[in-house]
C-alpha cells in the first residue's frame, strides 16, 4: 500500500462515505479488496467477452435491444444516468477500491484524488456506452489510450480498474443494480477495456514528451499566454489538445489546446484562464515561469477540418476556447483552397477575446474568413454583438448547411449545440471535445 495518505475528500472504509460524513480527518485507504463481480471480467485479448446476460432486461419485447452489445450499452447508460449525480463520491470509492487492488496505481494520482478519479472513471464509462457501435468505440478508445498512457497506466491494471468500477457501481447504484445489470456492465467493460488494454500493451512510442516554458505573459489577473518549446516537436494537428502536467501541480494532468497551427520549430502557445477553484489553471497563470519543465501528453481531440469537405464552416469559440479556433484558421490559411468559414468569438468582457486581434488580421487578409466578436458586457462598443454566443449565432443566420465546430466551456458548448439543433443543424454536422466540468 502506498505510504501517501489519502486526502480528507476520500472514503475511509467500505461502510462510511467519508467524503460526505467526516471531511476533517485524514483517512487511510480502503484495505478490503472488493468481492469480484459475479460474472468474471475477461478482456478480449486474453479471453472472449462474456455471453449475453442470462436474465435479459425486463420490459416490452419491442424495447429489448437487438444484440447483446446493444443491451449492455443501454443498461450501462441507464445505470450511469442514475449514479452520475453522485459522481464525486463514486469516484472516491472507485479510487479507494482501485488502490486496494493495485496499490502501485496510487502513485499516479495527486494527494486529492477526486478530480483525476472522476476523469478516469468517465474515460472508462464513456466507451462502455458505445460498445454496440464499433466506429464510435474506436473513436473513443484511441485518444483515451493515449491519455491513460500519459497518466502512467499499465495494461495489467485494467482488470483492477474493472473490478473497482463494478464494486463502486454496486455500492452506489442501489436499487438500480441487480445480477443482469452487473452482467451487462461486466460485458461492456470487457468489450471497451479489451482494446484499450491491447493498445497500451502494444504501444512502443514514448507516452510523454517534455518541454520548457520560454514565455509567460499575464494579460490580466486571471489570464495568461504561455509559450512552451518541446524538446522535440509534438506531432499534433491544428485544433487538437494536449494533456499537460506542470511542476507546480504534479500528477494533475489538464487538456490544453495550442493556439497556433503546428510550427516547424514545434513552439506551442497556450492561452489559460485561472478558473475558480482551478488548482492547475491558477498555478499556470500565477506561478508558471520561464525555465519550468512541462510534461506533454500525446495530442487528442475531435476538433479538425477535412480539406476536402464541401460544406461551409461555422466555428463558435468562447473565451480561451478561441485558441484551437485560431490554430484551425491559421492552418486553413495554408491550404490551396480554404473552405468559407465564419467565426463567432465570444467573451463576457472584451478582455476575454485574447485571440481577436490575430483573427482580425487573418480575416483582413483572407476573404474566405468572416469574423464576429460577441460580448455579454460591452455596451459601448459597436464592433461587438451583444449577448451570449448561442443567441448571437442563431440570430445571425441559417447554419443548417454548415459544418460546425464548438470550443469553450461545457456550458457554452451545451447551450450552443442545443440552440443550433433546435435551429435545424443536423447533429452529425456538429463537433466538439467533450471536456467534462
Ligand atoms: N478545445 C476546446 O474545446 C477548448 C475549451 N476550452 C474551455 O473553454 C472555456 C473558456 O473559459 P473562459 O475563457 O472562462 O470563457 P467563458 O466561460 O467566460 O466563456 C465566454 C463566452 O462563452 C459564452 N458562454 C459561457 N457560458 C455560457 C452558457 N452557459 N450559455 C451560453 N453561453 C455561454 C459567453 O457568452 C461568452 O461569449 C474553459 O472551460 C476551457 O476549458 C479552452 C480551450 C480549448
Automatic annotation (TrEMBL):
<keyword id="KW-0561">Oxygen transport</keyword>
<dbReference type="Pfam" id="PF00042">
    <property type="entry name" value="Globin"/>
</dbReference>
<dbReference type="InterPro" id="IPR000971">
    <property type="entry name" value="Globin"/>
</dbReference>
<feature type="domain" description="FAD-binding FR-type">
    <location>
        <begin position="206"/>
        <end position="306"/>
    </location>
</feature>
<keyword id="KW-0349">Heme</keyword>
<dbReference type="InterPro" id="IPR012292">
    <property type="entry name" value="Globin/Proto"/>
</dbReference>
<dbReference type="InterPro" id="IPR017938">
    <property type="entry name" value="Riboflavin_synthase-like_b-brl"/>
</dbReference>
<comment type="similarity">
    <text>In the C-terminal section; belongs to the flavoprotein pyridine nucleotide cytochrome reductase family.</text>
</comment>
<keyword id="KW-0520">NAD</keyword>
<comment type="similarity">
    <text>Belongs to the globin family.</text>
</comment>
<dbReference type="InterPro" id="IPR039261">
    <property type="entry name" value="FNR_nucleotide-bd"/>
</dbReference>
<dbReference type="InterPro" id="IPR017927">
    <property type="entry name" value="FAD-bd_FR_type"/>
</dbReference>
<keyword id="KW-0411">Iron-sulfur</keyword>
<dbReference type="InterPro" id="IPR050415">
    <property type="entry name" value="MRET"/>
</dbReference>
<keyword id="KW-0408">Iron</keyword>
<keyword id="KW-0521">NADP</keyword>
<keyword id="KW-0479">Metal-binding</keyword>
<protein>
    <recommendedName>
        <fullName>nitric oxide dioxygenase</fullName>
        <ecNumber>1.14.12.17</ecNumber>
    </recommendedName>
</protein>
<dbReference type="InterPro" id="IPR009050">
    <property type="entry name" value="Globin-like_sf"/>
</dbReference>
<keyword id="KW-0001">2Fe-2S</keyword>
<feature type="domain" description="Globin">
    <location>
        <begin position="65"/>
        <end position="201"/>
    </location>
</feature>
<dbReference type="Pfam" id="PF00175">
    <property type="entry name" value="NAD_binding_1"/>
</dbReference>
<keyword id="KW-0813">Transport</keyword>
<dbReference type="InterPro" id="IPR008333">
    <property type="entry name" value="Cbr1-like_FAD-bd_dom"/>
</dbReference>
<dbReference type="Pfam" id="PF00970">
    <property type="entry name" value="FAD_binding_6"/>
</dbReference>
<feature type="region of interest" description="Disordered">
    <location>
        <begin position="1"/>
        <end position="73"/>
    </location>
</feature>
<dbReference type="InterPro" id="IPR001433">
    <property type="entry name" value="OxRdtase_FAD/NAD-bd"/>
</dbReference>
